[in-house]
Design a protein that fits this description.
Number of helices: 31
Shape: elongated
Helix content: 55-70%
Mean pLDDT: 83
Number of strands: 5
Largest sheet: 5 strands, mixed
Oligomer: single chain
Distance between the termini: 74 Å
Strand content: under 5%
Length: 698
């Protein structure tokens, strides 16, 4: 077994070395001056040419894709965060500025090179026309430094053909450079990268691509020679040239993660920044959380904001309650000096991590932030409102101040921020007459936003969903996004790409705007979404070894008690609205308010994907729905349901039912079985049910 594994590893190693050889574009006239040269040439002869070509072309393709994605993301960040500060900062640039202000990181963050005013045009022409046939590696590196430090370089592109020769030659010498010389190459590349955003074509592996890949490969092979400070320095340099998907970064994150307890606080800070920008989480993030609690006294609030970015961007919540409280306390202490982006980051991690039993901590944070509401940016207001709403923390006065202040930012806010604020407005049950709704709808109609909405069609769909839950239906926008041409253009008419939001407002407009005669979801898409979000009736005899959700347990308990109270034939469970997946409990009363068996009068029972209107018949039946409100539809510590739950109640009324809400918080507060049964009876009798009723056969 060991021998076989060793052979596999050697084979992989040889192929990797060959790919380096091939990517270097070696020719007989170039002297690599590298100790592995003869070995590489022997591999070149032995490996089949076609396979090796495939290997290198695949690597270049992956490189181009990651570089393009990284540059596009950076461009998007720079252009979209104009609201943060003046001058505008993206989150990553803000985080990096915090690192630069930490004097203890001078050993792992190399200073930026400064252009040399003494470099002339004649010197540049001489370098570009030089014959590098017998040139040594040091001279090539010096020439590349000269090109990079050229003051007029800002008017040049490193992808121009006149630089291809020196880039190819430089690439062939990468392996022969010392660690410090290789770092100098990164610093030179930084000057080119930050001046011009380069659009990469994966089908055209230009020399610049090949040089970056060679640097990545060589750093990867030198891993065992590096110390922790070297890992951080090189990761920093990869960030500065915006090559964040490098294999070296992935390996460095693993290496540093295993030694996180040995890091100094400042190095831990830089490590979390690398995790943030590369989106590469360490396998055991809990180890990083444990180390963070030890380091907290060494950090400022803004530095903790940078660390929180690392956790949030990798979708890692903070599980330790005491750690969350310490972070929030630090922000409260420095709230007057903390910049907006750090506050945004705090509320992001709060939204991801805070528990429902930490209302007091949230209350203290909001009270500390309240005086800053009139001074912060619009995007900061959005993230605060989003966190407060998502955590179902109820403070109506605070939310009113946020909404009033945000109205002036509506015209300049991104579509995704308008979507988030709509979620908060609906959660807090703002009336549809509130002027902010009209402001937002007009923004979505604004022709100047056409490009933005075309780039982010999901934002428009989700916004229309939240508007429909507030009983607002801009029919022109709904017709636009449900049009066959629109769905084909942005979703390829693929039901797997079209989300639940389309099912929600498409169904809502049929219920609440019956006169609407525009397009609806295509049958194929609607059928798929209806099946995806349909639910089966509860299993009344579940396997005790199978874990079920709190919502399912809630429904099961209520159903079992109703069977004891009224009998199994007096009700049934079904999904009345296709865009709400939870099962509802349905009753039927005759004109004397006595229960009758409902199923014989309900021909749509069990059907999937249809709006199940209450049956109309000459016997004057009344249809009741016991509507369960799980904890995620109730504000914490209050018996107040969210607007998302109220939207379902409103729509059930419009299709002919009388909804009876049953809140999970009230249900959980009742301990004994008999008291729960009495509470169910009181809910039913409060809706004019005859308390002497008996189940009748129809």
């Amino acid at each position: 077994m060991f021998v076989r594994k060793l052979r596999v590893l050697l084979n992989v190693h040889e192929r990797l070395l060959y790919s380096r050889l091939y990517s270097a574009g070696l020719v007989s006239k170039v002297n690599l001056n590298h100790p592995y040269n003869n070995y590489l040439k022997s591999i070149h002869k032995n490996l089949p040419h076609n396979n090796s070509q495939f290997i290198i072309s695949r690597n270049l393709s992956n490189l181009s894709e990651t570089l393009q994605r990284d540059n596009e993301e950076d461009n998007n960040n720079d252009s979209k965060n104009d609201d943060y500060d003046k001058p505008s900062f993206s989150e990553n640039l803000f985080a990096y500025s915090v690192l630069l202000n930490n004097k203890k990181l001078e050993s792992t963050i190399m200073p930026r090179l400064i252009p040399d005013e003494d470099i002339t045009d004649c010197m540049i022409d001489k370098i570009l026309n030089k014959n590098y046939e017998d040139t040594c590696s040091k001279e090539i590196l010096d020439d590349f430094k000269t090109l990079s430090l050229y003051p007029k370089r800002e008017n040049l592109l490193i992808t121009d053909k006149k630089f291809e020769k020196i880039l190819l030659i430089l690439k062939t010498y990468v392996q022969s450079y010392t660690n410090e010389e290789m770092k100098d190459i990164f610093r030179c590349l930084e000057l080119w990268q930050t001046t011009h955003r380069i659009k990469f074509d994966k089908n055209n592996p230009i020399p610049y691509f090949q040089l970056l890949m060679e640097l990545d490969n060589d750093c990867f092979l030198r891993l065992n020679d590096f110390k922790n400070e070297d890992y951080l320095t090189l990761c920093d340099l990869f960030w500065r040239i915006r090559y964040l998907k490098a294999a070296f970064i992935k390996k460095a994150v693993k290496k540093l993660g295993r030694q996180v307890k040995q890091l100094k606080p400042e190095h831990y800070l830089q490590y979390l920044f690398i995790i943030n920008v590369s989106r590469r989480a360490f396998k055991n993030m809990y180890e990083l959380e444990y180390a963070l609690e030890l380091f907290i006294p060494a950090y400022s609030a803004e530095e903790l904001g940078v660390i929180c970015m690392g956790f949030f961007k990798t979708e890692t919540r903070l599980y330790n309650p005491s750690l969350r409280i310490k972070i929030i306390r630090k922000f409260i202490e420095e709230i007057d000096s903390v910049r907006d982006i750090a506050i945004c980051t705090l509320f992001k991690i709060v939204r991801l991590s805070l528990g429902v039993d930490e209302d007091n901590t949230m209350k203290d944070l909001l009270n500390a932030f309240r005086p800053k509401i009139q001074n912060v940016s619009g995007i900061c207001l959005v993230h605060i409102a989003h966190a407060v709403s998502a955590l179902h923390f109820y403070d109506k006065r605070f939310m009113d101040e946020i909404v009033e202040r945000f109205q002036e930012f509506v015209p300049t806010s991104r579509a995704k921020d308008l979507e988030r604020i709509l979620f908060s407005l609906v959660t807090y049950k703002y009336p549809k007459e509130h002027p902010i709704f009209e402001q937002i709808v007009n923004e979505f109609r604004n022709p100047q936003r056409a490009k933005e909405l075309a780039n982010h069609p999901v934002c428009l769909g989700a916004s229309l969903m939240f508007l429909s839950q507030a009983e607002i239906y801009p029919l022109d926008l709904i017709s636009k996004v449900l049009d066959h041409e629109y769905l084909t253009k942005y979703y390829k008419m693929n039901p797997y790409k079209i989300g639940r939001e389309y099912l929600t407002f498409s169904t809502g407009v049929q219920i609440e705007v019956p006169e609407y005669d525009g397009p609806l979801l295509p049958e194929k898409v609607a059928r798929y979404l209806n099946k995806k979000y349909s639910t089966d009736p509860p299993d009344l005899d579940p396997d005790m070894n199978v874990r079920i959700s709190q919502a399912s347990r809630f429904l099961l308990e209520v159903v079992n008690h109703l069977r004891d109270i009224l009998g199994a034939s007096s009700f049934f469970t079904d999904q009345l609205l296709p865009h709400y997946s939870k099962q509802d409990i349905i009753f039927c009363l005759d004109k004397n308010k006595n229960f009758v068996s409902p199923k014989p009068h309900f021909p749509q029972a069990g059907q999937i994907g249809v709006i199940k209107y209450a049956p109309t018949d000459p016997d004057e039946h009344t249809w009741l729905v016991l509507l369960l409100a799980p904890r995620n539809t109730i504000f914490n510590k209050y018996s107040i349901t969210t607007g998302l739950f109220d939207a379902k109640m409103r729509q059930l009324k419009k299709i002919g039912y009388q909804p009876i809400p049953l809140l999970a918080t009230k249900w959980m507060s009742i301990v004994s079985v008999e008291d729960r049964k009495n509470y169910l009876r009181s809910l039913l009798f409060a809706n004019h049910v005859n308390n002497t009723t008996s189940i009748k056969s129809s």
